[in-house]
Amino acid sequence: MKPDWDRLGSEYADSSVLIGDVDCTADGDSLCEEHEIRGYPTIKYFKDGDSSGEDYQGGRDFDSLKQFVEDELEVKCSVEDPSECSDKEKAYIEKMKAKSAEERAAQLARLDGMSGGKMISELKRWLGQRIRILKQLDEDKDDEF
Prior knowledge:
two-stranded antiparallel sheet
């Protein structure tokens, strides 16, 4: 399962979903106790700010895990139809629409450069959201020509 889990993490590295793992036999034991992890491997998922999480009961192969993420966890913010976007994303979309293509490209390069660094999960998620928005704005610009 570990190779599929790592692949899932790579696939969603720049998405609204954070895929992580904790070794409950080492430094993660207090976190595992807090979330009542009793068997290994255990998969928990957290939605909409829920801090206690829910146990995942689906398949353990890559395709099953990916389908669950797409159906249940991934937040899809579209520049063309921002109805699924958060207020923060909507504000960022409007802010970036007002910028020139060169300014957006510079911002995207700056954010891409930050994507490999260490940061807390909320900042990593926001970084990914901004990157996706900028890429969509760039795609929309390309579609106009």
